[in-house]
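Thread amino acids onto this structure.
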């Protein structure tokens, strides 16, 4: 299954309160998914959000900050034609969907737009309902959603027609635009929190096709609002208004025949400049940019990248990337892959970078002791700077554990970073663990030598207290655990550190442990580099199985080198049997695109016999006394 439907809807936005940019789409199973990038780091995801089958494949989306809150919202219409909202607060996890208004308000997957209503902390969502009438739903700050309320006459525009909304610069005016059934641009507007006005007819009837795509943006350098669309001759047109003055236009830009009438387009500031850009695909599927510097003359279209995999009239979205002066353009190509174009300030455009599909997991997915292997390619090259960051987005609640061999009941669970070395190294397996027993979160190391059939635990120091949880058997949502490995100049792992932060971002515990004597447990000349690793959730020791009643989050896997993802160990790895601790935690798919960082969702799955399976020769954490 592809995460992206060719030609499907796509949205891009800053994740407010962070340095993160998100790209959202609905996959072929009707499930929302998100990809993201932090500042100028590597792209991550996609991961899925919410239920499968919520809406139609490739549904249209809108994103906005929820004003008055440090929150990013995503909107879509589900299979019942009801408006849905997903949301995320700063660095916490995604929530939703929550429904707004009645079922049947629109058709599944219809177009919609969102923006702030100027003069307060109100967020508005606009759409054309099944009767062809403009609608608005709204929320004040972090309150309850209201509406939708109808604006203007029914039958104005085709049902589900694209709409564009904007806060008009230099005014207290919020405006929303649609092309009516006669191919004429219409504007609705409200000043502050007064009554809505419109529709006001702009330009001639028959200018473009009914329900044409359109985009609105501030022209940088003044108080001018621009609206763009492709006319019946496939030529870009711009309408504009200075403040609350009279609307002007349309003025024709570029050449006729560039695109099809009413095709997709997007407008954005080119960050770091006083430049306004309009991006669109021509009839051959090549991405082009039109631009104006301040209030100078419009230029373009100029081609960006190639045409081999792009679709004409594909959905297209744009956003600033993090806090950098980088502008990103994203779209889905004809192969169902995410394409990313970008420009840094006034430098040349780059791209596309193409995000590959996920690496196929086994039919029942990965769970418990089984997960993908990340490595520095297939030749067992050294990985340095290995780090696993576990973000808990839903309370991780331990229910019970049972020792599979002695049938003793355990006292908690473990999160393990398990790393392998190449054939011939004395150390074959390095375990860096966090265990929770009661309220006590502890850090732990186990170092192993020997082959798959000849295990030898060479160092098993006592666990160290790391942090105290507010409740027994529970890691609350918003908590973060980091396990990081340090290396010498030869790439050998020399030490590990653990850090825990709570749901306010405050550090509540940290530990460090050297591997080599005298503070560690092995000779310095027995240290080894690692070539692959994985993260798993399991029982607390002795091959036990942990059952969780709730829990979800994200694991970020990082290293200094570009890593690959596979379902099997490289043939040059010495120990390939993995851990004996299991659980009912399931792991999401990982992208096939090589990267220095991967993000993997985890969540509770139904407990089953298959969740307790391990590989022959799997190694157990040493049994602790007092259980």
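Threaded sequence (627 positions):
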């Amino acid at each position: 299954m592809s995460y992206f439907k060719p030609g499907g809807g796509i949205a891009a936005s800053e994740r407010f309160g962070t340095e993160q940019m998100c790209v959202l789409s609905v996959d072929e199973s009707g499930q929302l998914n998100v990809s993201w990038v932090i500042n100028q780091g590597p792209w991550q995801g996609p991961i899925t959000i919410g239920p499968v089958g919520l809406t139609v494949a490739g549904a249209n989306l809108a994103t906005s900050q929820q004003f008055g809150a440090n929150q990013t919202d995503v909107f879509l219409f589900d299979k019942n034609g009801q408006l849905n909202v997903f949301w995320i607060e700063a660095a916490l996890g995604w929530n939703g969907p929550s429904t707004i208004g009645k079922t049947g308000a629109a058709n599944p997957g219809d177009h919609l737009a969102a923006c702030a209503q100027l003069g307060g902390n109100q967020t508005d969502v606009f759409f054309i309902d099944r009767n062809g009438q403009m609608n608005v739903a709204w929320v004040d700050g972090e309150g309850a959603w209201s509406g939708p309320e109808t604006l203007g006459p029914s039958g104005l525009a085709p049902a589900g027609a694209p709409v564009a909304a904007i806060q008009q610069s230099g005014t207290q005016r919020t405006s929303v635009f649609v092309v009516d059934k006669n191919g004429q641009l219409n504007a609705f507007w409200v000043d502050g929190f007064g009554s809505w006005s419109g529709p006001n007819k702009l330009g001639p009837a028959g200018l473009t096709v009914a329900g044409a795509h359109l985009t609105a943006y501030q022209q940088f350098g003044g108080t001018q609002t621009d609206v763009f669309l492709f006319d019946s001759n496939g030529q870009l047109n711009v309408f504009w208004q200075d403040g609350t003055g009279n609307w002007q236009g349309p003025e024709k830009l570029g050449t006729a025949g560039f695109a099809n009438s009413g095709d997709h387009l997007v407008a954005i500031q080119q960050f770091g400049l006083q430049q306004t850009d309009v991006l669109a695909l021509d009839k051959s599927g090549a991405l082009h940019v039109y631009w104006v510097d301040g209030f100078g003359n419009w230029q373009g279209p100029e081609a960006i990248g190639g045409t081999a995999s792009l679709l004409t009239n594909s959905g297209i979205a744009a956003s600033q990337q993090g806090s950098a002066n980088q502008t990103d353009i994203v779209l889905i190509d004809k192969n169902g892959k995410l394409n990313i174009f970008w420009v840094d300030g006034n430098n040349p455009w780059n791209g596309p970078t193409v995000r590959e599909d996920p690496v196929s997991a086994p039919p029942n997915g990965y769970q418990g002791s089984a997960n993908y292997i990340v490595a520095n390619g297939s030749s067992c090259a050294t990985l340095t700077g290995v780090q696993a960051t576990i973000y808990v987005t839903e309370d991780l609640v331990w229910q019970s554990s049972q020792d599979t061999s002695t049938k003793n009941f355990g006292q908690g669970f473990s999160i393990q970073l398990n790393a392998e070395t190449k054939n011939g190294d004395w150390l074959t397996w390095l375990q860096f663990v966090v265990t929770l027993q009661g309220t006590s979160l502890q850090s732990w190391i186990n170092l192993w030598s020997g082959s798959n059939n000849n295990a030898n635990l060479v160092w098993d120091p006592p666990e160290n207290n790391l942090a105290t949880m507010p409740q027994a058997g529970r890691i609350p949502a918003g908590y973060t655990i980091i396990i990081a490995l340090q290396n010498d100049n030869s790439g050998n792992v020399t030490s590990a550190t653990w850090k825990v932060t709570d749901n306010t971002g405050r550090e509540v515990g940290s530990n460090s442990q050297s591997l080599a004597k005298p503070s560690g447990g092995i000779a310095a000349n027995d240290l080894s580099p690692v070539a692959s690793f994985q993260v798993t959730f399991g029982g607390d020791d002795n091959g036990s199985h942990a059952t969780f009643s709730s829990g979800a989050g994200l694991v970020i896997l990082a290293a200094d080198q570009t890593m690959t993802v596979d379902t099997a160990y490289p043939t040059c790895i010495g120990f390939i049997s993995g851990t004996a601790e299991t659980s009912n935690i399931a792991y999401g798919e990982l992208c096939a695109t090589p990267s220095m960082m991967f993000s993997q969702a985890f969540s509770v799955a139904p407990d089953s016999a298959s969740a307790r399976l391990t590989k022959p020769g799997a190694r157990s954490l040493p049994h602790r006394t007092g259980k």
